[in-house]
Write a structure and sequence with these properties.
By secondary structure, the chain is α+β, with helices and mostly antiparallel strands. Helix content is about 35%, strand content about 20%. The radius of gyration is 22 Å and the shape is globular.
């Protein structure tokens, strides 16, 4: 895109559209997401195009059913079907961001995705792995099987994934734009199929809007951090964890030592405690972030901070900086997918109404016509008002702990970006402290940690711990990046 005269926003919109083709089990035009933008004239904008709950709960015989997914060491239940579909935002968000900040014609930006959908992409190991673990969902409907199992079995490593219907859909949307998705034939097909078994209506699609928000801004070690504000959950929890971490002098520690891991474990545990202690229930209050990140509230938990002697994350993330001073961090997701494909389009819709993590009060208890809260948290670190670090992650509840660790690796331990992203990580949740290989040579026992619960040593790095794709620009203007090996990440340059 850059060689055609485009900017970073053209590039990331093109990349996310293409990811809907090459990673269709992870993200989709029928899903949702967020894009954090910094423009060359110093505007900071969070574009919220995540999924919305329907405007009413009237449904006829809800098509909503559980499917077990086997992750090898754990069996997890997901809910899919037309009754799991929330109002999609991905296409609307990408179209809106491009119209607002892009430079090239939208038809040009869609060309890479159309080419991939028409000619096909060879499945790599990571793509095939994602298909394999989601097999029960991908094979649940005839339309989905036509995409992912055209020969009667799931596509394998080295085979070609071709989605001609999606190529035609993208060509149509390149011309028709917003109305083509939210009011035209695509919307009518979706709404018609959801009249039985689902909640979505034409009214839901017609009224969907991309929301431009002021990013949540805080400080870490003298650096300005921008991230996703409420009603999203992840951004404020990242800011809270970093505020606790700032109370510890990590520069006195060696990375990966027991004291370092003790500190991370404490921070993760206390952040989870604080989340349950009033944050979630007040998520839609206008001042929730200000109260949650206030000095008295942080101090209450920091006094308990000491170094005393599973769900699949179906998410895609991209980070980018250009030479003009623009930067973008974008995270998108389709959940695990509902298995429902809009007829003739190649677009599988999300299952966000069937995500237990997104509906702690229970399924079908959601409030009508509100943005669903998410852990997705595209993030930037600014130096002198200019983007220094742009990052984000996939990985469901591990998104925030992955981002916190990469930021700490960069700013506390001074690691190069490749090392910061691909060093081993940890995650604490529900009484389990998980550690990637690299820490296994340490002598660790429960008595060394602030909880007497389970320690799990993983045999290899895994996408469970996120996929924190990141770029940074140093003081001399040199831009470098790192793709997370856990997610088969890659780095692209216009140079």
């Amino acid at each position: 895109m850059f060689h055609l005269g485009g900017n970073v926003f053209d590039a990331v919109v093109a990349a996310v559209l293409t990811s809907c083709v090459v990673e269709p089990s992870l993200t989709s035009l029928g899903g949702g997401g967020f894009l954090l933008a910094h423009t060359q004239d110093d505007q900071n904008i969070l574009f919220d195009f995540f999924t919305q709950t329907p405007r009413q709960k009237t449904a006829s015989g809800v098509d909503f059913y559980p499917i077990d997914v086997n992750f090898g060491t754990v069996l997890q239940e997901f809910h899919i079907g037309r009754g799991s579909i929330a109002v999609p935002g991905t296409f609307g968000g990408l179209f809106h961001v491009h119209r607002r900040l892009g430079r090239l014609p939208f038809q040009v930006v869609t060309e890479p995705a159309i080419h991939c959908a028409k000619t096909g992409v060879v499945l790599g190991e990571f793509q095939a792995y994602c298909l394999r673990i989601l097999e029960p969902i991908l094979l649940s409907t005839t339309a989905s099987r036509q995409i992912f199992a055209p020969q009667g079995r799931l596509l394998q490593v080295g085979e070609i994934l071709v989605i001609p219907d999606l190529a035609d859909t993208l060509s149509y949307l390149a011309e028709a734009g917003w109305n083509g998705f939210y009011q035209g034939e695509i919307a009518q097909k979706l709404a018609s199929d959801c009249q039985t078994g689902g909640y979505l209506t034409l009214d839901d699609l017609k009224h969907y809007q991309v929301i431009e928000r002021q990013p949540l801004q805080t400080q870490y070690r003298g650096n300005t951090l921008l991230t996703n504000p409420p009603p999203n959950s992840g951004g404020a929890l990242i800011a809270f964890a970093l505020s606790l971490l700032a109370r510890s002098n990590l520069t006195d520690l060696e990375f990966g030592t027991v004291p370092h891991l003790q500190t991370l474990a404490q921070v993760m545990r206390l952040t989870n405690v604080a989340r349950k202690d009033g944050y979630d229930v007040n998520l839609y209050q206008p001042d929730v972030a200000e109260q949650f990140l206030s000095e008295p509230h942080i101090s209450h938990y920091s006094q308990r901070l000491s170094r005393s002697v599973n769900k699949f994350g179906s998410t895609t993330h991209l980070s980018a900086i250009d030479s003009e001073g623009n930067a973008a961090s974008v995270t998108s997701s389709n959940g695990e997918g509902s298995s429902y494909v809009i007829p003739g389009t190649g677009i599988m819709l999300n299952n966000m109404l069937g995500e237990a993590d997104l509906h702690p009060n229970g399924f079908h208890q959601w409030q009508e016509n509100v943005r669903i809260s998410s852990m997705m948290a595209p993030t930037m670190i600014l130096r002198n008002h200019q983007p220094e670090i742009v990052l984000g992650s996939s990985g469901s509840n591990r998104i925030r702990t992955a981002i916190v660790q990469v930021i700490s690796n960069l700013l506390d331990f001074g690691m190069p970006i490749e090392q910061a992203v691909n060093s081993p990580r940890v995650h604490w949740e529900d009484g389990v402290f998980s550690l990637e290989p690299g820490f296994d040579r340490l002598t660790i026992d429960r008595s060394q940690f602030p909880f007497n619960e389970e320690l799990v040593f993983w045999e290899q790095q895994n996408m469970f711990f996120g996929g924190a794709h990141s770029v940074m620009e140093d003081a001399t203007g040199i831009i470098s990046g790192a793709g997370d090996r856990r997610r088969s990440g890659a780095v692209a340059s216009s140079g």
